[in-house]
């Protein structure tokens, strides 16, 4: 429930959750959009504006490593956070305005943790999450309450289907003078 002023959108309320990386979460409706029917470009632009606003207005802290204390992206949702058998839809916009083809494993983990923390789901209640861009589905559930540093936390199980999209092979030739890499000064 963090109030953030987003240029072009005004004041919105976001949640910050961690599931392997930090995300800002809010319903697309707060930005005048619908996660299921708005143009992807409009969702990406709005999510990116939220990410930048949060970065400028809120300092993240990670209990073990400050190297992990950065906002990776923003996940816009359909606002359906209370437990339901029906899927809830989101779009994850991360890094350099990239859009995840799935509901996002680390994002589902963080979203489950937030829903549990807010009392919207209980342990072992399985939620289904849908990607607004591809329709792919992941499920997640909080399986155990715990602590992480000074923070209340949950252990979350996520399942979904993933596919290889490519492989790479690197070959190093012994006579290559740059085989171990190089630095620019």
From TrEMBL:
Keywords: Lyase. Signal peptide: none annotated. SUPFAM superfamilies: Diaminopimelate epimerase-like. It catalyses: trans-3-hydroxy-L-proline = 1-pyrroline-2-carboxylate + H2O. It is an enzyme of class 4 (lyase). Belongs to the proline racemase family. Homodimer. This is trans-L-3-hydroxyproline dehydratase.
């Amino acid at each position: 429930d963090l109030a953030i002023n987003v240029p072009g959108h005004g004041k919105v309320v976001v949640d910050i959750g961690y599931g392997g990386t930090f995300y800002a979460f809010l319903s697309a409706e707060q930005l005048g959009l619908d996660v299921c029917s708005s143009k992807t470009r409009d969702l990406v632009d709005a999510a990116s504006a939220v990410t930048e606003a949060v970065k400028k207005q809120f300092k993240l802290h990670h209990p073990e490593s400050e190297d992990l204390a950065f906002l990776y992206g923003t996940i816009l949702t359909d606002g359906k956070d209370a437990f339901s058998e029906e899927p809830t839809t989101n779009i994850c916009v991360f890094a350099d305005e990239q859009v995840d083809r799935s509901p996002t494993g680390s994002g589902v983990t963080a979203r489950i943790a937030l829903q549990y923390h807010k009392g919207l789901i209980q342990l072992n209640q399985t939620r289904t999450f849908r990607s607004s861009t591809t329709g792919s589905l992941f499920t997640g559930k909080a399986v155990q309450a715990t602590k992480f540093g000074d923070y209340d936390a949950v252990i979350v199980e996520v399942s979904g289907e993933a596919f290889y999209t490519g492989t790479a092979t690197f070959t190093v030739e012994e006579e290559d003078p740059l085989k171990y890499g190089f630095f620019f000064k």
